[in-house]
Design goal:
The chain has a three-stranded mixed beta sheet, covered by helices on one side. A three-stranded mixed beta sheet has the order 4-5-6, covered by helices on one side. It is of the alpha/beta class. The chain contains eleven helices and six strands. The protein is elongated, with a radius of gyration of 29 Å. Helices cover about 60% and strands about 15% of the residues. It has helices at about 1-10, 20-50, 55-80, 95-125, 130-160, 160-185, 195-225, 230-240, 275-295, 310-325, 360-375; strands at about 245-255, 260-270, 295-305, 330-335, 345-350, 380-385.
């Protein structure tokens, strides 16, 4: 069904980096979501009103909030598709993240209100009337929500949309919420205990939890999080494909919203290579990354004196020593200044964020190693940096 709807409503459906195509995916997702959720709200509210079940009514309003979220999502995709302008040279793609944040806030507030209503029902129980039609309707609702989750998950994965993936997660939460409402309704057959109120609270907690989860993930995108490992490895593979590139470090990826990513890195090459040749190679690599990954890439070249066997040997020894200090520690940009019996080693040390040793301790360790191996006059000049990839 998903592929059929995509074929019918979206032309050029494979060009998912184009903001207009993404907008069409967003319109499709939102339209299906609005129609399904309004239908579910009407059916569940009627069931809840006739049976007197607060958990079913809570679940109905959960679907109504989902419908409102779909409208916000639709507006968000429309705004995100606006082209770049003087005030927003990187486009409006991050509007998708703001949309996710609004959706999360709506879900959270709705869940809190339903929690209050369910708590009141727990304190002042009311009679719940069981009906076979109600059970059938709730089961049908669960099946429809499972399909909606799969639908949005497939679309979200296809276009790498945090909004759609959040909507898919919300649909999975709805399945649990509707299941809780079904349990509360069925329990009225066997007990007079306020199971319905308890289930209403369970539903509300799942709604609130889902809102907080979406909010947390969206804030991470807005604040800036490291590029995922798969993307990093793809970039690394393209950069290192030519044997003239000896290494890569200081990779940074900036995300300005879906379809708009800017990245930079340092790539090492032999200092013996002709400048013109390396410049042409770098241009080619940047173009390949732009074509295959849709990333605006900038590469800075670092020359490596590969013919200086002494320097290369010391560089290798320092790299091996770094591994011994702790997992994840690495060095790059190595240079050596050979004084009169007092060599100076200049390099950067990449320190993981969760590394336990302090920078002063790391510096002392390298200094001790240099003096022990290369003479008492040997010293290090270290610049500490971080790995900005995941």
């Amino acid at each position: 069904m998903t592929d059929f709807l995509v074929r019918v409503f979206i032309k050029d459906r494979d060009n998912v980096s184009d903001m207009k195509v993404r907008e069409k995916y967003g319109v499709l997702s939102s339209g299906v979501g609005i129609a399904c959720n309004i239908l579910l709200f009407g059916v569940k509210y009627l069931i809840g009103a006739l049976s007197g079940s607060i958990s079913v009514i809570s679940d109905a309003f959960n679907n109504l909030s989902d419908s409102a979220s779909c409208i916000v999502t639709l507006i968000g995709y429309k705004m995100a598709a606006k082209p770049a302008d003087k005030d927003h040279p990187f486009g409006h793609g991050r509007v998708e993240y703001l949309t996710s944040l609004i959706i999360a806030a709506v879900i959270f507030l709705m869940g809190f209100e339903l929690l209050r209503s369910s708590a009141e029902r727990l304190v002042s129980p009311a009679e719940v009337t069981f009906g076979a039609a109600s059970v059938v309707s709730l089961i049908a609702s669960i099946l429809l929500k499972l399909w909606m989750s799969a639908f949005n998950s497939k679309l979200g994965t296809r276009i790498n949309s945090s909004v759609m993936l959040a909507t898919a997660q919300d649909s999975r939460n709805d399945v649990i919420a509707t299941g809780a409402a079904l349990i509360g309704l069925t329990a009225s057959l066997f007990t007079e205990l306020p199971v319905d109120g308890v289930m209403g609270i369970v539903v509300s907690i799942f709604i609130i939890r889902g809102g907080i989860g979406i909010m947390r993930d969206t804030v991470d995108d807005l604040l800036g999080k490291p590029a995922d490992r798969e993307l990093v490895e793809k970039i690394r593979g393209i950069v290192m494909a030519d044997e003239r590139i000896l290494g890569i470090h200081d990779l940074v990826v900036h995300n300005y919203g879906p379809g708009k990513m800017i990245a930079s890195c340092h790539a090492e090459a032999s200092s013996e290579e002709k400048f013109e040749d390396i410049h042409e190679l770098v241009d080619s690599i940047e173009h390949d990354i732009g074509e295959s990954l849709g990333i605006m890439m900038t590469i800075h070249m670092d020359p490596v004196d590969v013919n200086n066997k002494e320097a290369m040997g010391i560089r290798a020894a320092l790299k091996e020593f770094a591994k011994g200090i702790g997992s994840g520690l690495n060095i790059h940009d190595f240079r050596m200044i050979a004084g009169s019996g007092s060599p100076t080693f200049i390099f950067d040390v990449v320190v993981p964020y969760d590394f336990t040793l302090k920078e002063d301790d790391i510096r002392k360790a390298f200094d001790s190693f240099a003096r022990e191996k290369y003479g008492e006059g040997a010293r290090t000049v270290i610049t500490f940096d971080r790995d900005f990839a995941e």
